[in-house]
Amino acid sequence: MIRNVFLILVTIIRKEFTMNQKNCMVAQSGGPTAAINASLAGVIDGVMKSSKYDIVYGSLNGITGILNNELMNLSGLMQKDPDYLKRLKVTPAMFLGSCRYKLPDYLDDDSSYVYIFKQFEDYNVDAFFYIGGNDSMDTVQKLSEYGKKIGSSVRIIGIPKTIDNDLCETDHTPGFGSAAKYIATSLLEISHDTFIYAVKSVTIVEIMGRDAGWLTAAAALARNEYNTAPHLIYLPEVPFDKEDFLLDVKRLLFEQNNVIVAVSEGIRDASGNYISASEQSTDTFGHSQLSGAGKTLEFLVKEKLGVKVRSVEVNVLQRCAAHLASKTDLDESFALGQKAVELSEEGITASMVTVERISNTPYQVAYGHAQISHIANEAKSVPVEWINDAGNDIKQPLMDYLTPLIQGEADITYQNGLPVYMNVSHLAKHQ
Asked: What is the set of active-site residues?
């Protein structure tokens, strides 16, 4: 009898403890990077060291994983594998998968919001972390506003990610430094490839960047004591003129055999029209699907100048080149994931974690946060004063800004000559 009463009491205590112990949930969305999993690793590490949280759940394929009840116990996975966080930190793309799902305005349709917050309640979630870029921060803002409306105590915090480096309120974004390192390395290697031929030639390298030219600007980091390429750099922040472009190329061809051009996919003319855009193709957030700026300029050079010319579209290669990841980028991404957990413990919500640059030499940063309303649906462009007057190159202050972000190499294990990354076969089951 006494034993039975004791067992009942233990059961009740355990149940109450479970209900009082809070959990977290994390998801990733948008485009992949070489560093987004480092932020995920930082979140997991922060939760495991926290006295406030017990389990961190991962939502598969962004916010849609919550809607479809596709969740993983990330705490459990870590406990089974002592090298889990180390390998996750250097694994490219998104361990949890992604989506480009745009939540409707809850004033028009709140059904998704009702279900999401019911899921938070069912899993005893006290904090939700969303790792992503501009469109992901739109989701953070909408969930924050709805949570405030219903009086929810769930903290909603965004963790920045984008190779475009266009999020406001933060000095730079995780993923950008690694992509910049890949771009600079590629331009240097393209230069070596191009310079072997003593014939007049033009090589045009198209780099991602719809509205911001940060990544294209990073091509300038390829320049060294013997290499001056890229010789021309065109960013979307200043109007692009085809005639001026042809004059630039023609002038350089008079002086040298090989001309290498770095061009953003989002360059546009003085009227704001993209040089190459499919007007009929837009994503769920209304952004034009761009491609072909390099090819457009290739045809232009071939027609007007009649020299050997090729265009190179770096495309997705620049997003997840973990073998060329920046150690600085990975370490900062990890730290931002940890910071997000700390902020949630302090009661911060409706915010995004940020990087504040203290100095370039030595390079030092601090981590903070900013209101999500100042970030969502905004974009940070390259300052025009960091672009030369001719609009075909960058100035030294931009070089000084970029250089620290690509420093250091990732600690990657190799097997059979290839990098060893996290097994992501679970994603194939949820396609």
From this structure: 164
Do residues 401 and 391 touch, judged by C-beta distance below 8 A?
Answer: no
Question: Is the domain of 308 the same as that of 354?
Answer: no
Segments forming the whole domain that contains residue 197: 178-322
DSSP result, 134-145: HHHHHHHHHHHH
**Strand 414-415 versus strand 418-419 pairing type:** antiparallel
Q: How far apart are CA 215 and CA 130, in angstroms?
A: 23
Helix (H), strand (E) at residue 113: helix 111-122
Q: Give the Å distances, CA to CA, from 235 to 117, 170, 378.
A: 42, 21, 18
Mapping DSSP onto H, E and C, the string for 279-318 reads EEEECCCCCEEECCHHHHHHHHHHHHHCCEEEEEECHHHH
SS3 190: helix
Statement to judge: residues 311 and 225 lie in one domain? yes
Per-residue model confidence as pLDDT tens digits over 211-256:
899 999 999 999 999 999 999 999 999 999 999 999 999 999 999 9
Q: Which two tokens stand for residue 260?
A: 């290498």
pTM, entire model: 0.90
